[in-house]
Amino acid sequence: MKLTLELSALLVLILCCSVFADELPDVESAPLHSWFYADSGVFVEQSGQKAANYSEVGFWQDQSGNGHYLQQDNALKRPFLINALIEGNSALRFYGANGDGPRFENREFSLWTNFETSLQQPNTVFVVVNTRNVLNEYIFDGLTSSSRHYLIVGQSNNPRVWTLGANKTAYSTDVLNGNFLVHTLVYDSADSRHYINGSIQGVFDTGSGSLGGLRIGSRYSEEGFADMDLAELIIYNGAVEKTDRENVEKYLMEKYGIFPHCGSYNAGFPVADLNRDCRINIFDFTFLADQWLEDTSDQAEKGALYPEISPRYTDIFWQGKDGIDTYRIPTLLKTSNGVILAIAQARKYSFADKSPTKIVLRRSYNAGESWLPAQDIVDVGNDAAMANTALLDEDTGRIWLFYVVYPQGWDDNNPIAGLTSPSTTVWTTYSDDDGASWSIARDITASVKLPEWTNYATGPGVGIQLKRGSFAGRLVVPFNSGAGNHIIYSDDHGQSWDIAGSVPVGSESQIVQLYNNNLLLNIRSGRQYGRYISQSTNNGMTWSPTYYDSTLIEPVGTGGSACQASILRYTDSSEYDCNRILFSNPASGVARQNLTVRLSYDECQSWQFSKIISPLAAGYSCLTVLPDNNIGVLYENGREYSAEKITFASFSLRWLTDNKDGI
Question: Are 37 and 168 in the same domain?
Fold first, then answer.
């Protein structure tokens, strides 16, 4: 197939059509000085054992054969090895200053090396790194103020952009947090250059200083500690010339799955012919195109552009933020106006369930690119507001929030039945302005709870509004009690609520309406056979016997105790080309880890695609469809346990299906 591209603005295209070979390319224009990659030469101590997954790294051995090394003698400042973090390759994780969990209080992370002979300019540094913050954090620096080059994420006066040293040249390229990038830095005085994924970012004057050593993850003065994952670092003693540079970049991009390419096509060439099938990956550009893809062959099919968007990650809540001990139980919802609401429990003084807890919210007006500060929705003092579940009434635009209040001192070993405190009570509040303000909460316990029930909870996650059938428009919210699962519903837009039929097994559940109008409950089972499933053919009044979906494994082993999950209709065939349903949970039979998103085309009978969002510890999650039809997921995660923070990730259908599907 022959495709012609005719563009009228500056554009760089990176084309994928080569096969990765795990071997550093030969470079003729400059000798190799040092080479570090996280799958080799990583030790806890210089003379100690090799680092294992999640272990501290105090010694990183140079693979060039030139005898250099990176080290950290202080055990409290060592990064951690994370195996198979990107495309099967490992990386070293630096947590910045003080980290974001109890294990990392008063800790700072960095490695350093002192070169026996100063590295004079010109020299070239290649680094593969993923950053997670945007303000004044050093990827690397020299060891002293007089002998340094550096790369900074968001130097203090220029947040969210890169800064190149030693003359602190800042420029407007966004740091693209949450994405591994290949940086190439050619330090050559006034002719210094910075490339990202093979694309030139600028030419700068970085002074003429030499590099007497290297500090990874902080400033030379041991401040500006970076929150980052670093997979590979290569240094050449000279300015690597164009062909050699592109070969090394190509090697790194293919190795780590970062926009692999066969060649670059610049705006200086208005027409580029592709005489083979290729995937075109384009990132961060603005253009005007008179004609985008034009087929110039009489016999070829029309070409199509399939942009592949890797997930973007943003931490929304974390331990210690705003003085809160722990944030848990994420709820994610898109309003009628496209505002994204990230809701969570803020457990004030303790990680424990039913400890003093309020419900908080952060809002995004740009599909999760940035977020407003946190605001309280519900604060019940020393009681616990829990089991947050949100619901959008698309007919009115009203956002409903349901929650259960556990009174202070609640004892699970001696639960109290009833419809008033000291038993559990059910409340709802609503917003008519995209979450900016909320109504006075209303107690609906008497309508939706039986007097003999003790423990009681919504979802957690989201409820739905029925789209089809004789009760289209009905609001439906999943609940669970000691007697099993059921729904509550409203046919008058939330003015009144009633209890429907129940499923006598399982605990936390989420609900989806199938295309044949059946309701499907997806239920936490706590069994090794998978999630419980039950269906209703009469809008939730009665439910079928449960069966297992064995594909949807749950963490029921040691440290698992099963987990909540999220299920969401993505598209239906009345509006799109086919039916699609999404599902997310920690897909592990052993522990809460491997937060995975799955996709079904046959109404949950099978799951055709799945991708791991985070291979680390992960727990509760909630899915939504973003205004641009990308997918958002809000999920608990951490390095040691699953409730260290709550993160928002967004990604495309193309990414989820490896470019096999898109809308």
Answer: yes
